[in-house]
Amino acid sequence: MAAVKTHCAACNQRLPGASDWEPPELWVPEEGEFVGVVGMTRMGKSTWLKRWLKYLMAQEVTVYTWDPAREYSRHGLRRERTPLGPLLTQVTVSEVLAEPELLRVVEPDAELPAVAIVPNEVRPRRVDIAAGFAQAVPLILEHAPKGRVVLVVEECGLLEGNRQAEELLQEIATTWGKEDLAAAFASQATSQVPDRCRRQWRKVVAFRQVDTNDRAALTRLVSGGFSQRVARLRPHECVLADRTVAHGEALEEASAEGAG
């Protein structure tokens, strides 16, 4: 891999380096904004996402999650060292297929839906996770209430290899923004998320990643400096890259650098 460049060749503007990336503050995504949340297991992704979802709920945002591990709602599966999330309603794939209006359920202690969609099985096989995602998640687009809506898709890497699930993942990233929906795509491995989906991310929240393929994907997506910073993070540390801020020329240089 080529040495990391420090300045843009076209404008001589300094490119962000490994020490320039900061932890993210919680925010409400703009309509049509897509975010990647990546990092190795036990590094803090789901903990951060639960905190973010709680914040969004307090900001009067409708939230949904595709939740294969049943950890994002207060009715989820309790595990040691894994606190349950803040969502108020949990529905299985079969339940939402039979009664899509469950996606509009507002609990007595809430003002808007906050729904976790889970596979039918408590401990589903990978094939069941991908199939359930492809069946149930499209109903959100039709049945979500008007207003700000954020969808979190967990474990995107488990959808790899299922054509329908991968196509839906890419469809969410490329067309759902036109319906004013925002989404976050979470994965242990950046490289397992389809490239067409990754390219639509405006922001990347990254926890520790050391795998060569994942770091190369982050270099192409953001820059070599960002990839270096992410590899040095400690557990539960994360940094944010806003891809809308960087120079187009800088991003092109970073992409070429990652391919070198």
TrEMBL record:
It comes from the Bacteria. InterPro entries: P-loop_NTPase. SUPFAM superfamilies: P-loop containing nucleoside triphosphate hydrolases. This is Uncharacterized protein. It comes from Stigmatella erecta.
